[in-house]
Design goal:
Mean pLDDT: 95
Helix content: over 70%
Radius of gyration: 19 Å
Number of strands: 0
Shape: elongated
Strand content: under 5%
Distance between the termini: 57 Å
Number of domains: 1
Number of helices: 8
């Protein structure tokens, strides 16, 4: 399997360290600045990064996860009587600015990927990209997102439950 090979281990380590780093708002902004510089200088790797993002449907997968988590949060608050919204009203609120959200997700993915994979040589990145866009890479990515999105939804629901109970107790 790819992730048991040296390049797979390197890719995994780069992704994990980039994910930790980009959780800092300053680092995230710097990654976006570096992305803009790469766009300006017509960095060839950006086309391949975007190709991986498209092939793996990363924008859509992130959007699905965000929507599911937001819906679970609002639905739980609604069940607890903290907010009064129909399911359709929740969906309308969540999807209100979908194109803007898609654009923000793509920008973040590009900045993250550019930051994460910059240390790789062109050959290493090409091999990584080939794996990512292979049938196995696509299936693996979908499985990971399925698990991740379910966890995010569950956490949002639990957070709403805790918040809702706290808000109801404040009313007493």
């Amino acid at each position: 399997m790819f992730y048991q090979k040296p390049l797979g281990k390197v890719a995994s380590e780069l992704e994990v360290s980039a994910r930790i780093a980009i959780s800092d708002a300053y680092i995230e902004e710097m990654a976006k600045v570096k992305l803009k510089e790469a766009v300006k200088s017509k960095n060839k790797r950006l086309d391949e990064i975007e190709s991986v993002i498209r092939t793996l449907e990363l924008v859509e997968q992130n959007l699905i996860g965000a929507y599911a988590a937001q819906f679970a949060f609002m639905y739980e608050l609604s069940k607890l009587g903290v907010i009064e919204l129909s399911k359709q009203e929740m969906i309308d609120l969540i999807t209100n600015d979908e194109e803007k959200l898609k654009s923000e997700i793509l920008e973040w993915l590009m900045a993250f990927s550019h930051m994460a994979y910059t240390p790789m040589s062109d050959k290493e990145f090409s091999d990584y990209s080939d794996f990512s866009k292979s049938e196995l890479g696509i299936v693996l990515n979908k499985a990971l997102f399925s698990v991740y999105n379910e966890m995010a939804k569950d956490q949002s629901q639990r957070l709403a439950s805790i918040l809702g109970e706290f808000m109801k107790s404040e009313d007493l």
